[in-house]
Design goal:
alpha/beta; Rossmann fold; seven-stranded mixed sheet; 11 helices; 7 strands; globular
Length: 256
């Protein structure tokens, strides 16, 4: 198994929290993947790379795709196996896929492409894809056009550092990676959606982002203090205790 970055593996010790609090994806996302890839998901041989606890894997499986999950972290892989026992899980990452050449019709990276080296991951994806197969990348990013989310992002950046945040792909890496893609038929789409969750679930989702997890035990006190203060800010905006989280899914599909 190739080595992964410490930040990519930071989720591993918080797999149960990640599975419980992380948002999923809207049905429109998989509709768009089918449209842009040019073939249905039902019956497709798919590979979900950096699968984590299986949030995207589960949706692909429910659509009838024959999915294999690829995940570097043992904690995440274990959580995925428990929740999706019928889905094969292999240890590895996108820089060197442990899969046969031309064995997949679809490869997906849900929130994980920015953890790879694109110079290695793109030729690996094209090696594993069959001719006409599709590479689909997407990122769920909080919609900072919503005032309360923009205010929270300002507080997050103040707490974690001016160049960091916990509202999505750090530092705009998703957009930069999209711009690097070439060598096939390329399409890009933005999809807006929302979910409503209790304040506690929203705070658990924040705490489960790598920007907080990499702080480790040394940052536990400051993290608890920040989340307690954040609960007060959220209660002022959502007095009923239910937070409407608004997201933009950034989707890119490249057909070999």
């Amino acid at each position: 198994m190739p080595a992964s970055t410490p930040r990519a593996l930071s989720f591993d010790g918080a797999a149960a929290l990640y599975a419980a609090a992380r948002p999923g994806y809207p049905p429109a996302l998989l509709d768009a993947v089918e449209e842009l890839a040019g073939h249905p998901l039902t019956g497709a041989r798919a590979v979900d790379v950096g699968a984590g606890t299986g949030i995207a894997t589960r949706l692909l499986h429910a659509r009838g795709a024959r999915v294999t999950a690829v995940e570097p972290g043992p904690g995440m892989a274990g959580e995925l196996r428990r929740s999706l026992p019928s889905v094969p899980v292999v240890r590895g990452d996108g820089n060197r896929l442990p899969l046969a050449t031309e064995s997949a019709g679809l490869i997906t990276y849900a929130q994980s492409w920015h953890r790879t080296d694109p110079a290695l991951a793109r030729p690996e994806a094209f090696r594993v894809l069959r001719p006409g197969g599709a590479l689909a990348l997407w990122w769920n990013v909080s919609d900072d056009s919503v005032p309360w989310i923009a205010d929270q992002d300002t507080r997050l950046r103040g707490h974690l550092g001016a160049s960091d945040g916990a509202h999505g792909t750090p530092g705009g890496a998703g957009t930069r990676n999209l711009a690097q893609l070439s060598g096939g038929r390329f399409a890009h789409r933005l999809l807006r959606w929302s979910r409503t969750v209790p304040v506690g679930t929203h705070l658990a989702n924040l705490a489960g982002h790598s920007a907080f997890l990499v702080l480790g035990t040394a940052g536990e006190e400051s993290t608890h203090r920040f989340l307690d203060e954040e609960r007060g800010h959220l209660t002022a905006v959502f007095p009923d205790g239910m937070v409407e989280e608004c997201y933009v899914v950034e989707l890119a599909v490249l057909v070999r």
